[in-house]
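Quick one, T. Sequence first:
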Amino acid sequence: MRSHFVSGAAMACAVAGTSTLMLEGNCSAQTLIAADYATNATYQSGWSAGQNGGNGFGAWSFDATVDNNGNPDPGGQQTISSASPVGIAWALFNLGSAPAGAGISNVGRAINGPGGLQPGQTFETVIKNPTAYHYYGGFDILFYNGTTNLPAGNNTSALRMLVFNYFNTHWKISDNTGTTVTPLTSATTGAAGMKFDFTLLSTNTYSLTMTPLSNPSAAYMQTGTLRTNLPINWVNYRLWNGQSSGSNDLAENFEISSMTVAGLTLNIQVVGPNAVLSWPTNAFGAHLASTLNLGTGASWSTNFPSPVTVNGLNVVTNPIANTQQFYRLQP
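Structure tokens:
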């Protein structure tokens, strides 16, 4: 399955958190399952392997980083950038220069614990890629089932997004059906950064949206099939472009300001005397629950009519009572 198009859509209403209280109108709630930001206090003194400043992710790994002579160099080509267009950022840089150099800056970490990304969840990251062109240089982001970073030359991932300058400076997406060249160039996405949203639709299908922050209306979206049907539990960022001066080298660095995993979206609409609740049908194992009070002693009930399917959504119509009601999706 594959489709792709250029999109510039924006979200109309969103409330962060695990529950939503509806009194009137329409709203959506989404659970933030994992999050880490380069601004977290953990990274104030620098960025090192083994650190974990957020929640829901594993510790950072710099394995498979090598210097210009091909020697292991974990920590020698990673730093914090304070002048990135995307704000304070984790920065990958290279001591060597492609194509003659063997250097690669390589970082990665586990996603959402051992279970990995689940159907209906979205991994989001904000990056700033290099803008300098180097023949046979490049950078990529990989998603796969693993426990460590993939070394240079090993691209056996379930999904890979890459710019490889031997061919051109356009971003490409590599999945089970081959490689798609997108309309987005590294210059476009490097100008002010880019937001990646990777949503797992089922155990082996996905949607991916790439939004250049300098021109959100040029966002590119693609759906497709992953190369494997294994859980996606690792994300890997790699840079083997030109030689960099390290911190704040915007032309050569690959920089990451944030990464999050968001859960399922529960939409609620008040229609007359009813609350109409809906969520994606690909949210396998998710059930609607409600409670009258929040807190550690809250009792969540799943006593609802079975949902009906409407345009790819599970829909439940629930009469509005005289007391407040909180809703959430749960396993």
